[in-house]
Design a protein that fits this description.
This protein is 44% helix and 17% strand. The protein is of the alpha/beta class. The protein has 2 domains: 2-173, 3-Layer(aba) Sandwich (Rossmann fold), CATH 3.40.50; 174-249 and 274-329, Alpha-Beta Complex (L-2-Hydroxyisocaproate Dehydrogenase, Chain A, domain 2), CATH 3.90.110.10. Strand 2 (54-61), helix 4 and strand 3 (80-85) form a beta-alpha-beta unit. Residues 1-25 have low confidence and may be disordered. One of its GO terms (cellular component) is mitochondrion.
C-alpha cells in the first residue's frame, strides 16, 4: 500500500535541495512564477532563486515585478531572474517555461472562505491558463490560487477550449501535508522532518482529509483527539487568517509548500524515480472528477496515481462527506469557463 511504495518528501529533502549547490549534477530548469509580487509570490520566488535546480526564473505580475526581479537578481545563486509586468508582457514571461507556479490572486481576509475568492481569482486563473496553453502547453502547471477545488477545473476547461492537453495541470495541496506533518510531530514529540502524512481530497474545509492511519512513522490517537487534529488541519488556513487579523493569509508556509512541490516536479522532470507528492488533479479514483491523492511524478507529469490506499472507517466517512462538496466546487469552475470564456 501507500506506506510501502512511496518515498516521503520531507523537509530534510527540501533543505538538501536548496542548500547543496555544488552537489547537483542533474539538468536544471526554467521556472515561471505568475503573481510573483504578492505575499506568496515573493517568498516563493526567493526559495526558487536559491535552488540549484532552477536555471532561469521568470517572474510575472501586474505590478512591481521589475523591482522584485532586480532585488532577487543580486543574490549570488546561479538562477538568472527576469521580471515581466502587465498583460502585454505575459506571453513573453512564459516563453520556454518548463514549470509554471501560479499563486496569483487575492488573499483571504477574516471571515472569508476560499470560495469567497472565486469571482476574482477565477478570472485571473482562467487568463493565466489561457496564456500557458498558448505559449508553453507542455509545461507543468502548479496552481496555488484559491479556491483550488475550482481553479484547477477552470484551468483544465480553458486548456480544452484552446486545444491543449490539460494532463500536466496540478492543484498544489502540499501545505495541507506540511501542516499535518507539523501538527502530528508536535503532538507525538517527533522530529517534524521525519513525519509524512498523506492528505487527500481537496484543498478547503471538509474536503481536506489527512490520512493519519497511513502516517510514517505510524502513529495513533484516541477518537476525540483524532477528530480535533483532523479539524485543525482542515481549518489551519483560517487559523492563520485570524492570527494575522486582516493583514493577509498563509503566505510564508504556502511559499514553502509551493516551492517543495515545484522542486519535486523538477526532480521528476530530471528523471529521478520515486518522487511522490499529493496533488489535486482530474481523477477517476472517486465519484468526484477531481481529487487529490498521492502521485508518483515523472518526466511527463503524473507517472502513477497511488489512489486512496487502505482507509480507516473514520477516513472513509470523511471521503464520503467530501464528495458532494467537491462536486459543487468542480461544477462551479467548469460553469465559469463555459459562461465566460
Amino acid at each position: 500500500m501507500f506506506s510501502r511504495i512511496t518515498k516521503p518528501q520531507t523537509a530534510n529533502a527540501f533543505s538538501h535541495l536548496i542548500k547543496n549547490f555544488s552537489t547537483t549534477n542533474t539538468a536544471c530548469r526554467r521556472v515561471a512564477v505568475m503573481g510573483a509580487s504578492g505575499g506568496i509570490g515573493q517568498p516563493l520566488s526567493l526559495l526558487l532563486k536559491n535552488s540549484p535546480l532552477v536555471t532561469q526564473l521568470s517572474l510575472y505580475d501586474i505590478v512591481h515585478t521589475p523591482g522584485v526581479a532586480a532585488d532577487l537578481s543580486h543574490i549570488n545563486s546561479p538562477a538568472k531572474v527576469t521580471g515581466y509586468v502587465g498583460p502585454d508582457q505575459l506571453a513573453d514571461s512564459l516563453k520556454g517555461a518548463e514549470v509554471v507556479v501560479i499563486p496569483a490572486g487575492v488573499p483571504r481576509k477574516p471571515g472569508m472562505t476560499r470560495d469567497d475568492l472565486f469571482n476574482t481569482n477565477a478570472s485571473i486563473v482562467a487568463n493565466l491558463a489561457k496564456a500557458c496553453a498558448e505559449t508553453c502547453p507542455s509545461a507543468m502547471i502548479c496552481i496555488i490560487s484559491n479556491p483550488v477545488n475550482s481553479t484547477v477545473p477552470i484551468a483544465t476547461e480553458v486548456y480544452k477550449k484552446v486545444g491543449a492537453d490539460p494532463i500536466r495541470i496540478f492543484g498544489v495541496t502540499t501545505l495541507d501535508i506540511v501542516r499535518a506533518n507539523m501538527f502530528v510531530a508536535e503532538l507525538k514529540g517527533l522530529d517534524p522532518t521525519t513525519v509524512n502524512i498523506p492528505v487527500i481530497g481537496g484543498h478547503a474545509g471538509i474536503t481536506i482529509i489527512p490520512l493519519i492511519s497511513q502516517a510514517t512513522p505510524a502513529v495513533e490517537f484516541p477518537p476525540d483527539q483524532l477528530k480535533a487534529l483532523t479539524e485543525r488541519i482542515q481549518d489551519a488556513g483560517t487559523e492563520v487568517v485570524k492570527a494575522k487579523a486582516g493583514a493577509g493569509s498563509a503566505t510564508l508556509s504556502m511559499a514553502f509548500a509551493g516551492a517543495r512541490f515545484a522542486f519535486s516536479m523538477i526532480r521528476a522532470l530530471n528523471g529521478e524515480e520515486g518522487v511522490v507528492e499529493c496533488a489535486y488533479i482530474r481523477s477517476n479514483v472517486t465519484e468526484a472528477t477531481y481529487f487529490s491523492t498521492p502521485l508518483v511524478l515523472g518526466p511527463n507529469g503524473m507517472a502513477k496515481n497511488l489512489g486512496l490506499g487502505k482507509l480507516s472507517a473514520y477516513e472513509s466517512g470523511l471521503v464520503e462527506g467530501a464528495i458532494a462538496e467537491l462536486k459543487g466546487s468542480i461544477k462551479k469552475g467548469e460553469a465559469f469557463v463555459a459562461n465566460n470564456m
